Amino acid sequence: MSSVVGQNPRKVESIDKVALLQQRLNNIEVTHREEIQQIRSSVERLAAQLESSTVVTEPAIVNKDHAGPHCADIVQSGILSEGEWEELYHFFRENCYNVIGFMDDELYKTQSFVRQHPLTSTAICVIAARAIRQERYQTYLAHAHELIKNTFVGPTPDIHAVRAMMLLTAWTGQSRLWGYIGSVSTELGLNTAALQLGDEAVAHTADLVQRARTWFTLCCFDLTYARSHARSHASNVLHLNRPFVINRMRDYLPFAKRLLTSPYTQPVDHRICAYIVGFTITADAKAQLPKSGLQLNPMPQEAIQLLESFDQSIDRWFHKINNTIEPVYQTFVDKQDRNRFLIPYTFMKIYINGFALHGMDGSENLPDLNRISFVQKALNNAHLLIQTQCRSQGIRRRFKYTIDYIGTTTYHAINLILKALSCAHQYLDYEESFMALHQATILLEEAGAVEAAKEVRREHERLALLTQTAMSSTEEHFAPEPTAIDDENLFDIPSFLNAA
Questions:
Q1: In the chain, at which end, N or C, are there fewer CB atoms within 10 A of the end residue's CB?
Q2: pTM of the full predicted structure?
């Protein structure tokens, strides 16, 4: 009491109020601590009950990435609510699950399965958020990165984590993760499962086939990404020096077809095999063509024969897909997109025939006519690829949030056009090139890739000046909106394939 004698009465009153508030806060804190402890105890009991019941019924699902308690999923971390997660999941199921043709879309059809696996659950949130919750996309992506980082130490992540990382890496374009995914897959013995699939003495089990399927899916990613990530400079259009993630891939690929005869086969297995056969052609080209004297003028006969052989192989591949694979396996839900293989077909045609650009420097000397014919073929397929993407309702509608995956082929086609016209426009039939560049610009603008669209438009203008082509004439004939396109004729197989 002596300490407050002589003090201002108002000040004394304030001190008393502060003391009273402090006492109330202490009481509230004690109460909340007790409540929190009760809640924590309840959660631990429920978790123990859930774990024991789940281990009995679905032992392969509950794994939590083998990363310990610090690996709480995106809802448990308080980043979003259960209702928000369900909204993102349902959007993914309706719009995203079958975008990557060689990934097993059956994995995401069971909501309870997805929800129980933190990394899978988060990956789906990241993908869907790109479309419907863009303001939260980076937050979700950062959480996914944290979950992946947590797998760097401790036990090897499980097969579900591998699939989730594949999905996330493909959709976000973060290609540096492929090496890590390949390493984890090998640690899990997925490559061994692929070899066992071809061993007549080994009985096929659901687990073996699932593990082998995952390895072959990684092979598909490796084969396609080795050729398709060319988003920037036209001079890098072929990416000849990009290494494969999987060593000795040919040791595994012949056994992929065993997926089709397994009692545990899935529709995706037909698409996996189709992609492996097709992109093995481009892998062979990558290995053989640089050694054939491509840069010599005139082009050596060995190089000419190789280019012709690879190009014809792609035609036969496409013809076989459209004439022998059952429609339920080669197509997807939408009628208009019944021939989704037209995109990889045109892309591979660009890739193979585009090798002929190695040896063209834009000089005034008359180039080899054989070389020009291959470049023209690549150019025509670049036009067709962009036109197909622009006219597909599904691709165009989803391009904004699939650009890091689907857009890789778009960029490749754009770069081919820019490179070909810069080197040899005076020898090429490039009438449709400006139309294709304009369509590509529209696709990029609609997807929000403003800077990329500006870059393509600048190159468009440069080439128009170079070739003395009026820009307005290309835009007047721009393709109508997708709703005006005749779905029946959009994906017709080129007539020359009928005789293949």
A1: N
A2: 0.76
